[in-house]
Amino acid sequence: MKNKKGFLLGEHTLKVVIAVLCLLLLFYLLFSLYSNSQDERNLQLAGATLGELVEKMEEAKVEGESEAIILNPSPDSFLEKAFQEEWWIIAWPYKGEGTKPTQCQRDYCVCICVIPSNYESFLNLFNIRKKSLEECNSLGICKSFDEKIEVINKPIPIKDPPINLDIKYGDKEGFEISKK
User: Fold this and answer.
1) Are strands 87-92 and 65-70 parallel, antiparallel or unpaired?
2) Beta strands in the chain (DSSP E)
3) What digits encode the pLDDT tens for the residues 30-73?
4) Cα–Cα dist 130/140, whole Å
5) CA angle 116, 81, 29 (to 5 degrees)
């Protein structure tokens, strides 16, 4: 006689394994959809933030200087904070290099982009420009200018908003953006 209990155990085990795999696939698909919608929403918020910054830059062009208050381009709910990326304000070409994001159609541009992971790590110092360029091309928003734009010292992370910025403009120097 054959033992039917062992056969039934294998059949149930197979059903459980298939059910778990289906659930994992479902969670993966839901997370992917959520992530894509968040990227679009964050890009819209970053665009609005960049619009406010550009408005203050135009004001500085007329008056010589201006102040801007920048809010975080990412949403504020608890769940969204768990998955959100950090953003920063960066000017291109970065530190005089010729490379710039594809969105930059003129000589200079200012962007709000996702900060590359581990950007403060010593090992990351040598390829931070490349990673920043990749992030600005994939998930960033830029505005092109004919005038030189310089973010004083280094890119400005948008952490613990609001961030107060000083924007100065000179005919020869172009724009200088610095954190207060």
Assistant:
1) unpaired
2) 65-70, 87-92, 108-114, 140-145, 149-151, 156-157, 163-170, 174-179
3) 877 776 666 777 778 888 888 899 999 999 999 988 998 887 66
4) 14
5) 85
Residue 150 in tokens: 């310089």
**Residue 57, SS3 per DSSP:** helix
Give the length of the chain. Answer: 180
Report pTM.
Answer: 0.70
Measured in whole angstroms, the distance separating CA 165 from the mean position of its chain's CA atoms is 19
Distances in whole angstroms, Cα of residue 84 to Cα of each of 42, 76, 81, 87: 9, 9, 5, 9
65-70 and 140-145 beta bridge pairing = unpaired
pLDDT tens, position by position, 102-152: 888 888 999 988 888 765 554 555 577 788 888 888 888 899 998 888 888
Per-residue b or e along 111-120, where b marks 16 or more CB atoms closer than 10 Å to that residue's CB: bbbbbbeebe
- Virtual torsion, Cα 90, 95, 97, 99, nearest 10 deg: 0
Q: What six digits make up the tokens of 171?
A: 């005919």
Number of Cβ atoms within 10 Å of the Cβ of 64? 12
